[in-house]
Amino acid sequence: MHKKEPFIINRLKSFGFAFKGMLILLKTEASIQVQVGIAILVTFAGFYFNISKTEWMAQVIMIGLVLSIEGVNTAVEAIADFVHPDYHKKIGLIKDVAAGAVFIASIAALIIAGIIYLPKFI
Ligand SMILES: Nc1ncnc2c1ncn2[C@@H]1O[C@H](COP(=O)(O)OP(=O)(O)OP(=O)(O)O)[C@@H](O)[C@H]1O
């Protein structure tokens, strides 16, 4: 059990751990780095094409969704490798399913990107 500390100190500490986790993801995960790169590109595109407030909201939600699910996917992979470092069919299934979740979010993000930007080209 943790030492009893004031509520606000505990909340601040949790915030610090979460921030540390985000930095670990950004520094070590190639897929997150690629996704952040895409997020930066579409943010520039948003300004360039002067997209509407609603389009910005959809874009920000999709960026957050893809990055956060990718973060959870990374955690699932780490747990899988920790509990069973050797090859196992079940571990393969667990990792594939976690990756599938990222895939679903990415398809949704692509569709949203199409809805926002395709009309600007045709
Ligand atoms: N221990 C294992 N047992 C069985 N199959 C595995 C195992 N480790 C990985 N795999 C298979 O290899 C795939 C890739 O796993 P890996 O841990 O290398 O993820 P990754 O490609 O690095 O993912 P990301 O790019 O999201 O970090 C898994 O989806 C799974 O199909």
Automatic annotation (TrEMBL):
InterPro entries: DAGK (IPR000829), DAGK_sf (IPR036945), UDPK (IPR033717). Substrate binds at E70. A divalent metal cation binds at E29, E77. One of its GO terms (molecular function) is kinase activity. It is found in: Cell membrane. CDD domains: UDPK_IM_like (cd14265). This is Diacylglycerol kinase (ATP). GO terms for biological process: phospholipid biosynthetic process. Pfam families: DAGK_prokar. Belongs to the bacterial diacylglycerol kinase family. Keywords: ATP-binding, Cell membrane, Kinase, Lipid biosynthesis, Lipid metabolism, Magnesium, Membrane, Metal-binding, Nucleotide-binding, Phospholipid biosynthesis, Phospholipid metabolism, Transferase, Transmembrane, Transmembrane helix. Mn(2+), Zn(2+), Cd(2+) and Co(2+) support activity to lesser extents.
